[in-house]
Amino acid sequence: MQVPERKPLLSIEGLTKTYPGVRALDAVDLHLYAGEVHALLGENGAGKSTLIKVLTGLTGRDSGRFVLDGQEISPANVIQATALGIGTVYQEVNLLGNMSVADNLFLGRQPMRLGFVDKRRMRQQAAQIVAKYGLKIDVAAPLGQLSVAVQQIIAIARAVDLSARVLILDEPTASLDTQEVALLFDVMRQLRERGMAIVFVTHFLDQVYAISDRITVLRNGRRVAERLTRELPRIDLVQMMLGHELSETALHRHKPENEAGETLVRFEKYGKRRYMAPFDLSVRRGEIVGVAGLLGSGRTETAKLVFGIERAETGSGRGLVSIDGKPTHIRSPREAIRRGFGYCPEERKTEGIVGSLSVRENIILALQARRGWLRRMPRRQTDEIAARYIRMLDIRTPDAERAIQFLSGGNQQKALLARWLVTEPRFLILDEPTRGIDVGAHAEIIRLIERLCADGLSLLVISSELDEITAYADRVVILRDRAHVAELSGSDVTTSKIMTTIAA
Amino acid sequence: MSATSARLTRLTNIPGSAQLAALAAVLLGNWLVFPGFFNIRMVDGRLFGSVIDVLNRGAPVVLLSLGMTLVIATGGIDLSVGAVMAISGAVAATLINAGTPLVLVVAAALGAGLLCGLWNGILVALLRIQPIVATLILMVAGRGIAQLITAGEIVTFDDRGLIALGTGALLAIPVPILIAAGTFALTTLLVRGTALGLFIEAVGANERASAYAGVSARVVKIAAYVWSGLCAAIAGIIAAADIQGADANNAGLWLELDAILAVVVGGTSLLGGRFSLPLAVAGAIIIQAMNTGILLSGLKPEFNLIVKAVVVMAVLLLQSVRRRD
Question: Where are the membrane-spanning stretches (chain B) (predicted)?
């Protein structure tokens, strides 16, 4: 199947890396050939970043070996990795924005003359380098003034000029627009022609098929597959990434169409440039709308727009919201909460819980914030509320005064749900409600979601667990490349249908 | 059964035990070097004695530490309080000499402090300048403003009413102690009688999560800086009344550092979050008791700073042990 006569430039064999409690990489193999673009794919926690960290010497490994051009190597830090010819360019360009393009290209190895930096020669050489990449820029200009795409290319140019044979591009396209991506791809093709081996990490499937020659898929720290891109259909790739077979497993709980009530909220042409393409979304009373898509497809972006954390662009018929048919606007979380919204974020620790405050204080925070600082809820009332919800949601904590950071993930999530339930919301947005939660609590949260919906609450649930979504959602919105691309409802809500739509 | 055992664990782990132990140790040390330390006598209807002196001298730092506690709890810091003291003293001295009634003088001085706090709050909360830089601006510029108000001179005054705020006594208790105690009570009421204290702690512990829960982080931060400015203005009036003059260069000089120290000794983390006003006051009193003790002992004042450092380290170590448990 693969080209047997060619030897890989770099092979990774049996790479294993464990962190306390997690096996981040489990006997992973990867073969990288000269003159190819090799896409490294996987969802959150698949092990992509760990692989890159180990390969570039940022962190150690437990076992496994790297063979570069027939020689076994073991880079102990980034400098050694660079010296061996492994260059890395990160999503966040790690160059110095206040220094000139030429300075950045030659930082640490400036041409010297009589003990001083030979600025003239440095600029000449820099100009030659950027010309090779087809850039028409002033090399004396500060790097920070250039677009992110050009900065990326400068970072690549620097890595290549440091005699890189292997170039790792870690999500270089995440913040680029279409034209900039095309510019970057030109550079990548040019480098491929010159025999460079390129590892390309991205979430965008279109880009994978546009540029890559070979694909390695990781899931939960294991290598699922290494295939030639042209031999791997999209649908198979999506299945590998999400870990599902096309055969139907979970049964969909059908609700009669007429059971759901009137439309509660409606968003029209809701979007933000460079963040999320405008979308239409409506949710009826007592309805659960699922949101599915790969990592980076705009799942959390959708939630943040809907909850007012990011402001949608408005004007000329765009960015309209109506609740119960009445036009309104949502420009901040406070406004969203006042309209009866609630949001349990995916990043529970940084955006959800207030770690050092007690379970009780975390539960009443949103309600107290809505009442305002002057109308403080009496201590006895907050004690009662906390006790009631701790019992109702079975939050396991020694007592209500325990700092919430000491609770397990599942119990933190239940406390966050309680925070919103005490505000008696009409519309709840749950972003990955079961992420990082053990199996027992997992099932409890699913049951809770179904119960809430039966009580007439409307829910928007974002999840990468397709089994879950198909189990409770009445409709599923499919996202791809930061746009809503399809909506499935009724008998179409199946894991296979979702996956084929994601991959389409 | 489990409730009683929980209560027992809470008793053995009382927050503030480190501060109270430190305070006791410092007071004991003072008593050892100066056996008359706890003697209190009544002269002309006013209490006198070393303990009273500690409280009286400590009043300005106690006042500063009240506002500073709230600011630090939001995750910020206020370096300008010393300079704000100078501004408020300058305003008070200049106006009283212009024949303004005492009530208006006090109101104007407090108003100046409030404006200073509002300025800091806007820089930090709306313009998102780092607190240490934002308040450094007023720390430097504030003394200039105070000098402009006093026209570069030390403005002395002899208004008995204003002087009484620094040196008078009511019911035998020196007025600065009463003012500090009153401000403490008012601040406690402000933050614990309303939900402001909870919001301050939430914003300080996790600003983003608080904002997503609907807490208006900006308003909370501005309120903290405004209160800090107000407390500094009160301290400035007392300091000016005490020396019967406004010294733009030296009023409240370096007191911001004592206030920060008091807050930290009181167990509030510089990273923000949980705070305690009573323990910050205890911290301020510990610092003042040390100052007084070193004076009484006849040691050279140079030792003051070193002894202070040792005690502060001891308290912080005790706290970190408790936190690790």
Answer: 20-40, 61-90, 102-125, 162-191, 222-241, 253-272, 279-299, 305-321
Please tell me which of the candidates A333, A355, A371 has its beta carbon nearest to residue B206.
A355
- Nearest by CB to residue A369, choosing from B6, B193, B215, is B215
The reply to whether A119 falls in a domain is yes
**DSSP SS3 for A486:** strand
B 28-57 → A contacts, CB under 8 A: none
Query: Which residues make beta-bridge pairs with A211?
Result: none
**Contact present, B234 and B187 (Cβ < 8 Å):** no
On chain A, the residues whose CB falls within 8 A of the CB of B275 are: none
Domain count, chain A: 3
Could you tell me how many CB contacts below 8 A there are between chain A and chain B?
80
Instruction: Establish if B12 belongs to a structural domain.
Output: no
The C-alpha angle A363, A398, A445, rounded to 5 degrees, equals 55
- Closest to A298 in 3D by CA, of A209, A220, A204: A204
Phi (first) and psi of residue A180, to 5 degrees:
-65, -35
- pLDDT tens, per residue, chain A with 504 residues: 444 557 889 999 999 988 766 678 889 999 999 999 999 988 766 788 889 888 888 888 888 989 988 888 888 888 888 888 888 887 766 778 888 888 888 887 788 888 888 888 888 888 888 888 878 888 888 888 887 778 888 888 888 888 778 999 988 877 677 778 888 898 899 989 988 999 999 877 888 999 999 999 988 788 988 999 999 888 888 888 877 654 444 444 545 444 557 889 999 899 998 889 999 999 998 888 999 988 778 889 999 999 999 998 887 778 889 998 899 989 999 999 999 999 999 888 889 999 999 999 999 999 999 999 999 999 999 999 999 999 888 888 888 999 998 887 778 888 999 999 999 899 999 998 877 666 566 677 777 777 888 888 899 999 887 878 888 888 999 998 888 999 998 888 888 888 888 887
CATH (domain of B265)? 1.10.3470
At CB < 8 Å, which residues of chain A contact B?
A: 307, 309, 333-334, 337, 343, 345, 350-357, 361, 365-366, 368-377, 398-399, 419
Q: How far apart are CA A142 and CA A164, in angstroms?
A: 25
The residue with tokens 């733009």 is B248
A314: closest CA of chain B, how far (Å): 22
CATH number of the domain residue A180 falls in? 3.40.50.300
Beta strands in A44-194 (DSSP E): 63-68, 71-73, 86-89, 112-113, 116-117, 166-170
**Domain-located, residue A369:** yes
Is residue A178 domain-shared with residue A49, that is, in the same domain? yes
Residue B254 Cα to chain centre, angstroms = 12
Helix runs in A197-266, H state only: 205-211, 234-242
ipTM attached to this prediction:
0.84
- Mark yes or no for CB contact A357/B209 under 8 Å: no
Domain encompassing residue A360: 348-424
